[in-house]
Write a structure and sequence with these properties.
The complex is a heterodimer. Chain A has helices at 3-28, 39-47, 79-87, 156-167, 297-303, 306-311, 343-354, and strands spanning 53-62, 89-98, 102-109, 112-119, 122-127, 132-137, 171-175, 179-181, 184-193, 200-208, 214-221, 229-237, 255-258, 280-283, 290-293, 313-315, 318-322, 327-331, 336-339. By secondary structure, chain A is an alpha+beta fold. Chain A has 2 domains: 39-258, Clam (outer membrane lipoprotein receptor (LolB), chain A); 273-354, 2-Layer Sandwich (TATA-Binding Protein). In chain A, the strands form 2 sheets. In chain A, strands 1, 2, 3, 4, 5, 6, 7, 8, 9, 10, 11, 12 and 13 form a 13-stranded mixed sheet that branches. In chain A, a hairpin with a 3-residue loop joins β2 and β3. Chain A starts with a helix and ends with a helix. Chain B has one domain. Helix content of chain B is 69%, strand content 1%. Chain B is built from 10 helices and 2 strands, in the order αααααααββααα. Chain B has helices at 2-9, 16-38, 40-62, 85-94, 98-117, 120-125, 130-163, 179-210, 214-232, 263-289, and strands at 169-170, 176-177. A two-stranded antiparallel ribbon of chain B has the order 1-2. In chain B, β1 and β2 (176-177) form a beta hairpin. In chain B, α8 crosses α9 (214-232). Classes of the chains: A alpha+beta, B mainly alpha. The interface between A and B is large, with 44 and 40 residues.
Chain lengths: 355, 294
């Protein structure tokens, strides 16, 4: 055998692997043929969705133009670090849903996990990092109803419902090309803002053709091709998850905190400033709405931290936290002004409000 | 020489001389493994690996309060309540450096070690064929990967059982499993880590065919293991992360969830298979065309 023949496998195998690596994603993206639907029909399909039990893996990626932070140094310990970790990189979440009152959400981190389990009126939050458990009780009148769970990402369906409810009126709707999400054929509903001064270019919702369940939500910034935020199933099963998954008992040795007044906003883990209850005003509606939050203890803790200074830049009138789809202005007098609008609009709102 | 290896590559199907050659292959593997495990160096490395979890257990036993701070490697704060976590902490500590170090020594020594000792040509005098010799050497390294991972896990479990109470184990998801099931999970974790090291072993085998200086091959393999991890920690390079052989090294945590997440196990196995095939082919190309002078 000649020398070149002996080297053949070494030359051919990488080529074959590269071929497979290119071909497999392409075949997954291959054109999906579905009967044509108007945007109104897709919305109707979404509204008619009656999926009450499913399990699946959700992947959330953010590309907000923030500096990439090394994932190792940031634990889920500090609340700001936790929020920041959600704003950068990729996160994997497993969800198990069996009716409105039995939900389990697992945020999978490297060698760590955070679980939120709702079983009837009990809500448990377990964090493996500190081996801590928080227990809350859902009021019995809400026993069979869905309630927002603390410290979890929304599912694509929840995010899609919120986007449609809040922004349908201020958007132009169209149906994009059908695609395959988590192995299921899906319609793509695209919402483009009618307002011209928002940072958001479009939001797209992939709606499962068979069940109407939203499978993925992408938000794309203006002048950006890759989605700024993407939240979608990578795998989904419509079988009812085993009941044992929802039976949570705090593990031995865990620190259990009882939450006496379970309020929707009383999340133990980071919540965005927008959910802070008091003194919150909204200017405008739709995509270019601007939220103003008055100064309180929470905003002061936030602005006094070291990471805050590193992540914001000085602008006239305060400090600005800038991402490709959201700007947050922290004014000198302690207010927080946020919106999917350019910095100048925020400054104008802040100036008008302070008068 | 060349006639023997040509016949070898065509995978003879069970006739007389082929069967003789097959027994020769198994015999060669037996010899290789017994030589590997009769070396003092191998036992020294396995012993050093086993000491890591023992040291951790003793340190936590002496100052239990210091481990409750939440700092340090994952699972460290669980040890005082359950000794079985010593094995997990030991593996977390050994995966980034100690395991690749020992595997790099064994894999880098495979061919270069024989070449430098002047025994390589004698091995090839027997009608075993060069590819068969490579396969046997690789399997020897793979057996060492199993032994290295198990020595950390078993030493950790034993040290933990001696120094701390043992009981039902809390998974990352907060669910509790029995001791019996936790042994199954530990073995799965050991399997995951063993598979994780197979790609590195293939790289070591290839580098070992390039040189007659075993120390050079060992050092190069270990350096690559470190470089791969450094690249994997840089967020700017996230496009190449899924292709780095060390990318899933800590993915064994997915076996400690309820229910088990097999995604990273599958991705890791596929990735390591890719490294095995690519570097195995490179090693074959190099070794079958090499002039064996020593």
């Amino acid at each position: 055998m000649k020398t070149w023949q002996k080297w053949m496998p070494a030359a051919v195998i990488p080529v074959v692997i590269a071929g497979i690596a290119i071909a497999v994603p392409m075949s997954a993206d291959a054109a999906v043929h579905l009967p044509a639907k108007t945007p109104a029909q897709v919305l109707e399909l979404m509204a008619s969705s009656s999926v009450t039990a499913f399990s699946g893996t959700i992947s959330q990626t953010s590309d907000l133009g923030l500096p990439s932070l090394p994932t190792t140094g940031l634990g889920s310990g500090s609340s700001l670090a936790g929020t920041l970790a959600l704003l950068t990189g990729t996160h994997t979440v497993r969800v198990y849903v069996s009716g409105a009152s039995r939900v389990r959400v697992q945020q999978l981190d490297q060698l760590a996990e955070r679980d939120v389990v709702r079983n009837g009126t009990d809500v448990w939050v377990y964090s493996s990092a500190g081996n801590t458990v928080t227990h809350a009780t859902v009021p019995s009148r809400d026993r069979h109803r869905a309630v927002p769970l603390p410290a979890t990402l929304p599912t694509p369906a929840e995010a899609a419902d919120r986007i449609v409810a809040a922004l349908q009126k201020s958007s132009t709707l169209r149906v994009g090309t059908s695609e395959r999400v988590a192995g299921r054929a899906a319609y793509e509903l695209i919402l483009t803002p009618t307002a011209t001064d928002t940072l958001v270019g479009s939001a797209s919702i992939a709606v499962d053709a068979a069940t109407g369940l939203p499978l993925r939500v992408d938000v794309t910034a203006r002048a950006q091709t890759a989605p700024a935020v993407s939240l979608g199933f990578t795998s989904i099963s419509l079988a009812r998850p085993a009941a044992s998954l929802f039976a949570f008992t705090p593990p031995a040795g865990a620190t259990v905190t009882e939450q006496t007044a379970p309020r929707q906003h009383a999340a133990p883990a980071p919540s965005k400033p927008a959910t802070t209850p008091p003194a919150r005003t909204v200017t405008g509606t739709g995509w270019d709405a601007v939220v103003t939050i008055a100064a309180d203890a929470r905003t002061r803790t936030l602005t006094s931290s070291k990471q805050f200074t590193a992540l914001t830049s000085v602008v006239p009138g305060g400090r600005l936290f800038h991402t490709s789809i959201v700007n947050v202005l922290f004014t000198a007098d302690g207010r927080v002004v946020a919106g999917s609008v350019p910095e100048s609009t925020l400054a104008a709102v802040a100036a008008a409000r302070s008068k | 020489m060349s006639r023997a290896e040509t016949a070898d590559e065509r995978a003879p199907g069970g006739s007389g001389p082929a069967a003789a050659r097959a027994t020769l292959g198994w015999g060669l593997l037996g010899t290789e493994i017994s030589v590997l495990f009769r070396r003092r160096r191998t036992w020294a490395m396995l012993g050093a690996l086993a000491i890591v979890p023992v040291l951790i257990a003793v340190a936590v036993k002496l100052r239990p309060a210091a481990s409750a701070s939440g700092r340090g490697p994952a699972f460290l704060d669980q040890i005082t309540s359950n000794g079985l976590f010593v094995a997990a902490v030991g593996l977390v500590v050994c995966v980034p450096l100690f395991l690749p170090l020992t595997v790099g020594v064994v894999a880098g020594d495979t061919i270069a070690g024989e070449a430098s000792a002047g025994t390589l040509r004698y091995l090839l005098v027997a009608p075993a064929g060069r590819i068969r010799l490579l396969a046997v050497k690789y399997l020897g390294a793979a057996v060492f990967c199993v032994a290295a991972t198990l020595s950390v896990a078993v030493a950790g479990a034993l040290a933990g059982a001696v120094l701390f109470p043992v009981g039902p184990v809390t998974l990352l998801s907060g669910d509790t499993i029995s001791v019996g099931e936790s042994v199954v999970r530990s073995l799965l974790v050991a399997l995951f880590i063993t598979v994780s090291l197979l790609g590195l072993s293939a790289i070591g085998l290839f580098i070992s065919t390039l040189t007659d200086v075993p120390v050079g091959a060992m050092a190069a393999t270990i350096v690559l293991a470190v470089v791969s991890q450094v690249l994997d920690s840089l967020p700017q390079l996230d496009a190449i992360h899924p292709w780095l052989f060390s990318h899933y090294w800590f993915g064994f945590g997915d076996l400690l969830r309820q229910p088990i997440s097999w995604d990273s196990f599958g991705s890791n196995a596929l990735l390591q298979l890719g490294y095995f095939v690519v570097f195995g082919a490179l090693a074959c190309g190099r070794f079958t065309t090499k002039d064996i002078l020593s």
